[in-house]
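#structure-requests
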Amino acid sequence: MQSASDAAAAREGRLTEWLLRAFALLAYAFAVSNLALAWWGDSSRWTLLLLLLIEGYTLLMVLVARPARLRDMAPLTVAATLYAAFFFVLLDARGTERLVPEFAGVALQLAGTLWQFASKLVLGRSFGLLPAQRGLVTAGPYRVVRHPIYLGYLVGHIGFLLVNWSWRNAAVLLLLYAAQVLRMHREEVVLAAGSDEYRRYQQQVRWRLLPFVY
């Protein structure tokens, strides 16, 4: 029989989940208005449209995610997660410089998108924002690195930045990957808590993000 404290914790967990999902919806709506206006002004900038589609798919995954069994609610983790989820509202497509042709940036974005889509399909409803236990997945891209979705993001963001270069956008993405490194570490702490299976997985797949590097 569920105790009163367990029931209260479950209600709090459900409330946290839905507050995060509602905030994600509002943040994405704001980002869509900014990036869509920039793309409407210059429809040749496919990197903007692709970024919208990528973040839109991420939002969909958040909205249908399986409820977490255990979640890291430490203030620093929450702050890093919120920034990582909604960083794109800070990107500015105006007054940027193209360091490479548009098609080159699009190619990188597509490569990153296909990789992260494959990773998310394998992950299914275990996807979420905050570091949490939603089930262990070790198949597909997870045999290459322990955080393949982050790798897909990284490749796509490099493509976006090369075509939409500004010091502001570079700073936004640099801070993003500082937050992502923190999230990766916290996710592994949560997943390894009481899970011999995940610790064995860490030994089998050595690299977190970049094979032979990190």
